[in-house]
Amino acid sequence: MSYIPHTENDRREMLADIGVKRIEDLYQVIPEETRFPNLNLPEGMSEIEVIDELQMLAEANMETKHFPCFLGAGAYNHFIPSVVGHILQRSEFYTAYTPYQPEISQGTLQTIFEYQSLICQLTGMEASNASHYDGATALAEAVILATRQHRGRRKKIVLSAAIHPQYREVVRTYFQGLDLEIIGDKSLEDTEALLAMVDENTAMVGVQYPDFLGRIKNFAKLGEVAHAAGALFCMVVNPLALAILKPPSEFGADIVVAEGQPLGIPLSYGGPYLGVFATKKKYVRMMSGRLVGETLDSRGQRGYVLALTPREQHIRRERASSNICTNQGLMVLAAAVYLSVLGKQGLQEVARLNYQKAHYAAKAIDGLEGYKLWSTMPFFNEFAVACPRPVTEINKKLIDYGILGGFDLGQDYPDLKDHMLIAVTELNTKEKIDDLVSVLGEVAHD
Questions:
Q1: Backbone angles phi, psi at 241, to 5 degrees
Q2: pLDDT band at 316 (very low <50, low <70, confident <90, very high)
Q3: In this model, does residue 419 exceed pLDDT 90?
Q4: In this structure, are 417 and 307 located in the same domain?
Q5: Do residues 116 and 252 both lie within one domain?
Q6: 210: cis peptide before it, omega within 30°?
Q7: Strands 202-209 vs 232-237: parallel, antiparallel or unpaired
Q8: What value does the mean pLDDT of the chain take?
Q9: In a domain, 181, yes or no
Q10: Whether residue 309 sits in one domain with residue 348
Q11: What is the tally of structural domains in the chain?
Q12: 86: alpha, beta or left, given left = phi > 0 and alpha = psi -120 to 50?
């Protein structure tokens, strides 16, 4: 049973102090019809019954662990070297929390410092933190940075429709009720529409690279237009793709955010993941999270410290840039180990495998009767395909053959009804891709 520290007498004294007689009086501001809704909960169960119920549900789950996976849409099935897991499970890392005391947290601090350095090399940016939950919240924090940089005077955020739909929803959730206009282009094809939306009231322009549909675009002109209007330019990236693509810094990006899951973090039913956040040095004091720096101690030995911790635990609350960011220490460690083990050459090789295998699959599927590639633009490891039947029906058939199919784009883009987003990684062998193509061909004629 939970420990409840307040006695009945404590409660009466607290209620009297604030001028009410009962706890229920505190809810008077809530409309009466919604105060105590009938939750229609089932009868309580014993612990044994609950365990039996959960076991039955677990056994009903389909074993898909060894199914070839072609589902991406922001979370990808990559190979993770065994050393990543072995280091993560070391007790000094696994049980560590946040590195507030540098004298006893040098290992954790060095891990974060190395991770920050690697992210800066990958993105071409000058500073990185290590403190966001995932790619979606990192994008929302980028909007916070942009609005703070403009001291709240600019009220417009321009986000491309080709940014992950869930990322855009998280941004809208963050800022609902605030005087901030979040707009974007209506067409996934029209970058020119974004250019026309940027004006002197724009705080930030955001795009994805490669975009949600895997396409690779040149955003140099958009970056120039954003800067000419005085807006910050933010790029949501796939960190693995940056091993072979131009870094965001070459497009003039002010902020780079990403989902770090492709960097040695398993799918894990959706988390925990890692929000990557990098920016220019001049914006670091507007950046939320933690920034670890390298210094020398009184004996001239190298040491690591929290250089910037702009959150409410350390400074006056009204000056905090964020109050919900987390250290994500284990995920930072996983990404740092993954990047270190693969190195520059290894990371490029993995990225090339993703690129080449995806193009092999796309060409084969485009040759099937009833299927057609939606776009002819360059893409990384993901591409959209028009299908002859509803995607949900095709995916059910694929499951029958032991294959996890792609993402139904019609869920988020009504114009792309019956279009599937297919992701191909280094774990998809030629044989697995050929099996997918074969089954897709059969499904088209059912």
A1: -65, -25
A2: low
A3: yes
A4: no
A5: yes
A6: yes
A7: parallel
A8: 91
A9: yes
A10: no
A11: 2
A12: alpha
Structural domain of 193: 82-339
Q: What share of the chain is helix, strand, coil (3-state, %, to 5)?
A: 45, 15, 40
Burial of 22 (0-12, 13-18, 19+ CB in 10 A): exposed
Q: What is the pLDDT of residues 178-219, one digit of tens each?
A: 889 999 988 887 778 899 999 999 999 999 999 999 999 999
Q: Please check whether residues 289 and 400 belong to one and the same domain.
A: no
Instruction: Spell out the residues 6+ positions from residue 241 whose beta carbon is closer than 8 angstroms to its own.
Output: 209, 210, 216, 351, 354, 380, 381
Helix H or strand E segment including 397: helix 391-400
Among 339, 354, 385, the domain boundary falls at 339
Whether the model clears a pTM of 0.70, i.e. scores above it, the answer is yes
End-to-end CA distance of the chain: 56
CA gap 306, 295 in Å, rounded:
10
State the CATH number of the domain containing residue 394.
3.90.1150.10
d(CA 324, CA 123): 25
The values of phi and psi at residue 382, to 5°, are -145, 145
Establish if 24 belongs to a structural domain.
no
Q: What's the pLDDT tens digit per position in 231-247?
A: 999 999 999 999 999 99
E strands, 189-337, are 202-209, 232-237, 255-259, 275-279, 291-296, 302-308
Q: Check: CB of residue 185 under 8 Å from CB of residue 197.
A: yes
**Better-scored residue on pLDDT, 117 or 193:** 117
Q: Which of 339, 357, 381 is the last residue of a domain?
A: 339
Q: Give the distance from CA 393 to its chain's centroid.
A: 28
Cα Rg of the chain, angstroms: 25
Contact 119, 258 (CB under 8 A): no
Whose structure tokens read 């560590």?
96
Report whether pLDDT(312) > 50: no
Closest CA to 108 of 88, 136, 134, 83: 88
